[in-house]
From TrEMBL:
This is GNAT superfamily N-acetyltransferase. PANTHER family: FAMILY N-ACETYLTRANSFERASE, PUTATIVE (AFU_ORTHOLOGUE AFUA_6G03350)-RELATED. Coiled coil: none annotated. Pfam families: Acetyltransf_1. Residues 15-147 form the N-acetyltransferase domain. It comes from Mucilaginibacter gotjawali. One of its GO terms (molecular function) is acyltransferase activity, transferring groups other than amino-acyl groups. InterPro entries: Acetyltransferase_Butenolide, Acyl_CoA_acyltransferase, GNAT_dom.
Length: 156
């Protein structure tokens, strides 16, 4: 477990960023990702559990309550993919997303990587502050994409 102590201002206000998965509020994370996010609607709970288990996770907490989250899929040697990044609505607008991305990119286990990647529809301004740019060679990248089926709760 690595606890970030690089932001006294947030710490003094009761915030913490930690990679300790035992602190994560799975239900809060699942509810946001599967019901509110634009990128993971319909995500099955068992898939999220597996994703968390097999990823490096960063939780933002305010007095032990989940305030934000991000996952990093990585081999810790050459590559990291940042995904599922969010700050819950009641905690937005005070710089937590910047602190989160800073904490991820400065994490000791993620130094010296050759490539970082992520996908975003609306947070280019945030990520550009940390050196992220458009793909330098998008013609070299390929994907196989299968979105989750969103299940209407009334039909269940």
């Amino acid at each position: 477990m690595y606890v970030f102590m690089n932001a006294d201002t947030f710490l003094k206000k009761g915030y913490l960023i930690s990679t300790d998965k035992s602190l994560l509020d799975f239900n809060s994370i699942y509810q946001y990702l599967s019901e509110e996010s634009y990128w993971a609607k319909g995500l099955p709970a068992e898939r999220l559990a597996m994703a968390i288990e097999n990823s490096m996770c960063f939780g933002i907490f305010k007095e032990n309550r989940q305030a934000g989250f991000a996952r990093v899929v990585t081999d810790k040697a050459t590559f990291a993919y940042i995904c599922d990044v969010f700050v819950l609505p009641g905690y937005r607008g005070i710089g937590l997303s910047k602190w989160l991305i800073q904490s991820i990119t400065e994490h000791p286990e993620l130094q010296g990587l050759r490539r970082w990647s992520l996908a975003t529809a609306d947070a280019h301004g945030l990520y550009s502050q940390f050196g992220f740019t458009q793909l330098s060679r998008p013609e070299n990248w390929m994907e196989k994409f299968k979105p989750y089926q969103v299940i209407n709760k009334e039909e269940q």
